[in-house]
Amino acid sequence: MEYINIEAQINNSNSLFLKKLPGFIVKGIAKVTRQDEINRILTKYSAIVGVDFLPKILEELNIHVCVEGLENLPESGKCFFVANHPFGIVDGLILTHTVASKYGDFRAIGNEVFVLIPQLRPLIAAVNVFGTNPKKYLQNLDQVFNSEIPITHFPAGVVSRIKKWKVRDYTWHKTFISKSVSCKRDIVPFYFYGRNSILFYTVFLIRKALGINTNLELALLPHEMFNKRNKTIRVKIGKPVPYQTFDRSKTPVQWADDIKTLVYCLK
Fold this sequence. Notes:
By secondary structure, this protein is of the alpha/beta class.
């Protein structure tokens, strides 16, 4: 079964740049994104949906996870579990699997592209990270925020990039701070050790140098996922930060930056 079709996604996109790409380039992108292998894996586990799907993918890739600080996970799952975003897919799998293993369920605030994967669809609170969110997305997010269910979130919204020869997240968006206060959710920080390949950052730097706005390097994220095959990923969990911490002594933007700093200090 074909779950992912790069050519169809490009044709349905809003990017004039992508739509003008020659056919052989589109086929090359499909190869780089490992479209056929992804479809093979999704077909293999087509009958497994939701939280049970996550460990199957980690097993398929033979990714070993070393988590430090599991004792810091609170008994109540009504929290934001936030992390840096160095990998793009694997960190999402590990973050959500760790939370699901403790609490049984969760909702991930994630890129709407993951809704294309039926096995993940029940777990995703979709957002459009590159544009305006439709009303149905906002309504669903509001329901999730006000529920008792654990929420996993990468506040940067996009994968870490290289800047001044350091791989770090962009600015963390403030929404998780304001919703932490209004919905009485503590924040549990996660730190992922590691980074993507030199190829990923090279494509990013070349794109920026040429003034291309389309995030071409995103096509490499599946490649980066398979690049983690047979490797060990280290994660550290910090102590929860009570929602009462976020008073008016600082703005939500400043508090978000403080939590980002806290996450990077975990390493």
